[in-house]
Inverse folding.
């Protein structure tokens, strides 16, 4: 049987209408959404399906919505392929929590509680220490590290050899963008985010999440779990807890993560949930990795090619 990996998106992948067709067409997906509505105490389905976008993009709502929509998508997939077992799972930032639920390391209920608390803590951290982020294209890791030393920003994401993300106080990020342009970055893109994620400005959130994780039951994952902080598989529950909290103040090592995926023997991955970011990054990191994005009923329908691999 072919080894298949799961990739789960992070904040920014949200879009109004996501999951609506799955809710209408697949009872397991509907159950995930309805269960989330009950646990949250408000209609997440209304927010996901109808918006408004201004509410959906808020950190507190976006993270919960992406987490639930991704797992509803996975539930629909598993209803079609009940024997499907992923060889590994990894996710971009928020997507780590989705990965752990997919690998049965954390229950859906515990995962939803953690994601909601994480989003609250990150919003609080943004208010305590305002910041922002920017994407640098055509600027190597070595040059980014030099830029960080020079301007006082921090390296937040190593998405591909050609795409780095910096994070920090607004004025320092703006200065770093100017310096990067002057030093030959192909493109400098300020990101529409509410704070300096994956930097030391998120220490308040890290400490709070660590406290929440202390009261959370985490089991050894049923498959390889690749955390953002190390980009290498981890199975020890205590280590997983440590890394989930540490991720908030450390760079996302996505280049290393994609290397680990390839070295594990996986040649095909499914990007589960809204967006196409991870499919694009996979191509930039490993041209031999085939990634199929699944977020809608239409994308679940062409079954014949995958059926042999899943059963």
């Amino acid at each position: 049987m072919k080894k298949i990996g799961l990739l789960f998106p992070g904040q920014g992948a949200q879009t109004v209408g996501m999951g609506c067709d799955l809710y209408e067409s697949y009872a397991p997906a509907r159950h995930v959404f309805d269960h989330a509505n009950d646990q949250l105490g408000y209609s997440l389905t209304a927010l996901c399906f109808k918006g408004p976008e201004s509410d959906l993009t808020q950190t507190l709502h976006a993270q919960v919505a992406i987490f639930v929509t991704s797992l509803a998508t996975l539930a629909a997939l598993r209803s079609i392929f009940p024997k499907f077992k992923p060889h590994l799972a990894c996710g971009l930032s928020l997507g780590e929590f989705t990965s752990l639920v997919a690998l049965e390391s954390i229950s859906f209920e515990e995962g939803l509680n953690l994601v909601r608390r994480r989003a609250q803590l990150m919003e609080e951290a943004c208010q305590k220490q305002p910041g922002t982020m920017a994407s640098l294209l055509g600027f190597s890791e070595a040059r980014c590290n030099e830029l960080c030393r020079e301007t006082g920003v921090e390296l937040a994401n190593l998405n591909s050899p050609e795409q780095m993300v910096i994070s920090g106080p607004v004025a320092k990020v703006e200065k770093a963008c100017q310096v990067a342009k002057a030093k030959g970055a192909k493109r400098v893109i300020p990101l529409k985010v509410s704070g300096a994620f994956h930097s030391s400005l998120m220490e308040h959130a890290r400490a709070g999440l660590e406290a929440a994780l202390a009261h959370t039951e985490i089991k050894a994952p049923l498959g390889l779990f690749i955390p953002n902080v190390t980009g290498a598989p981890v199975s020890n529950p205590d280590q997983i807890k440590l890394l989930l909290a540490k991720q908030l103040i450390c760079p996302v090592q996505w280049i290393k993560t994609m290397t680990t995926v390839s070295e594990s023997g996986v040649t095909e991955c499914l990007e589960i949930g809204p967006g196409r970011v991870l499919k694009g990054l996979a191509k930039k990191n490993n041209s031999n990795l085939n990634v199929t994005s699944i977020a809608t009923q239409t994308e679940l329908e062409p079954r014949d090619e995958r059926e042999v691999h899943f059963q």
